[in-house]
Amino acid sequence: MTDIAWGIDTDLSAYERDGFLILRNVLPRDLVSRVVGELTALCALTGVDEGDLGLSCSRLDRENQEALYRLYLAAPRLPAFAALSAHLAGVAARISGADLPVLSIDTIALFSPPRDSRLAYNWHQENSYMPGLPGDVMTFWCPLLDPATVDNGAMSVLAASHRLGRLPYRKISRPRGYTDLLPHDAEAIAASHREHVCIADPGDAVVFQGNMLHRSNHNATNRTRVTGIFRYIAACDLPANLKFSADMY
Ligand SMILES: O=C(O)CCC(=O)C(=O)O
Predict the structure, then answer these.
(1) Ligand 1 centroid to 215 CA: how many Å?
(2) How many domains does the structure of the chain reveal?
């Protein structure tokens, strides 16, 4: 099973086998609501308020991408976002199983506007973006506002692709400074692995290993999909550099 309810006796073995797990109801609902409330208040500071965060972000993407970018920068600094990160660190510690602390690498609010190609990522491995880290990065992907569906471009993963290890990649430049690190033979790998579209509700999380191939899909709705991304490593070493930034690759 890769799709399980989170609880004290949850069987986590599929994380090793398939490279990912869908954890149902792993986030406290009141905390997710607080994140949405704080994000909505932050978004209103841009002067755009459609009375709905998903529609406001879509309008910002059309009319003021600079303001949407500033919202993206500020969002992970919100107190409720930090509380979610602290909550998931406990889950990460349990999944990693090691008797060691877990380090938070970064926290991101991903805004995925309709009909967007700029913020939609092709197949990639998280580890490619973090070459300086000593261990495997564990990522939690959490729909925050609306359920993640096929229509709004929920993330896909390729089951068991983490077993391929770190793959060589090509850098593909995209508009406005974005870079894809596309593994060689990504399409052939996609054809030979089971693609799983991560349909999930706010409160659920998909947790996956650093070498798991995954990508965004096209958002065909009029609402921006809002996702929290939380990344951790087990502190198996004292890393020389915990920065995760574009200048590392
Ligand atoms: O939600 C998405 O669009 C995919 C996110 C993703 O690829 C990532 O966080 O690395």
Answers:
(1) 6
(2) 1
Instruction: Tell me, yes or no, whether 131 lies in a domain.
Output: yes
Give the whole-angstrom CA distance, residue 232 versus residue 118.
26
Look up residue 108 and give its DSSP letter: E
Query: Is residue 111 situated within a structural domain?
Result: yes
Residue type, 80: A
- Is 4 inside a domain boundary? no
The answer to whether residue 9 is domain-embedded is no
> Domain range holding 23?
19-239
Query: Around 171, how many Cα atoms within 13 Å sit in the side-chain half-sphere?
Result: 8
Pocket of ligand 1 contains residue 112 by CB under 6 Å: yes
The CATH number given to whatever domain includes residue 31 is 2.60.120.620
- The residue among 54, 247, 238, 236 whose CA lies nearest residue 144 is 54
Quick check: CB of 216 below 6 Å from ligand 1? yes
Could you list the mean pLDDT of each consecutive 10-residue stretch along the chain, which spans 249 residues?
67 88 95 97 95 96 94 95 95 85 91 80 90 85 98 97 95 78 94 97 97 95 97 80 52
- Tokens standing for 48? 């755009």
Ligand 1: residue whose CA is nearest its atom 2: 216
